[in-house]
Amino acid sequence: MGFFKRLFKIGQAEANAAVNMLEDPVKMTEQGIRDMKGKLDESIKALAEVKALAIRAKNDANKYRNKMAEYENKAIALIKRAEKGTVDQADADRLATSALDEKEQAAQSLQTALQTQKTYDAQVAKLDHTIDRLRAHISKWENEAKTLKARAKVSKATKTVNKQLANIDADGTVAMLERMKEKVEQDEALAESYADIAFENQSIDEEIDSVLEESTGGGSEALAALKAKLSGVDKAIEK
Hints:
The chain is mostly helical and 239 residues long. It contains six helices and no strands. It has three domains: 2-168, Orthogonal Bundle (Helix Hairpins), CATH 1.10.287; 170-201; 209-239. 5% of the residues are buried.
């Protein structure tokens, strides 16, 4: 039974931690930024793929342009050779016509390639714009997250200090100080009482020695000197 109770408590703690994390604006903001960075990476990958298609379409267009020029030049060469008599006129006309047909097919393929390139170029421009916006937003949110994180730390520290201050038992502290004061005064009185008892228990010899020690103090010598001075003054007046 105790094991299942502890397991339930662990589950409760984990659930509470999950709720707290969801309610933590700093963690939510950081998670949002991570998600946006993931989308940015996906957009950059898509941009690279579309750019590759646009480059391929451009290369195809150049290839079809070259084919058009090539077949046109071949048709011209066949016509000139027929005029010189080096090639049969009928063969030259047939082959030149076929070359012009190939040129026309290349021209049609060129138009298709140019339209495809135009479509991909528009997608590239759109993705470039989206990526620039994402980068700007991410940079802005990262700066705001740093500020929010710093404010959260200050707020948490302030809340902790204020909570501690709010939980201080002023009355209990004063009462404890009063008890300490009473205890100190009691100890002082007890010490003085023991001193009096100790003095009362002195032997006659100890009491005599104590009085003699007091009589030889600096105050007695000063009094004797003052008396001698006054005695000298009185004698001077009498003379």
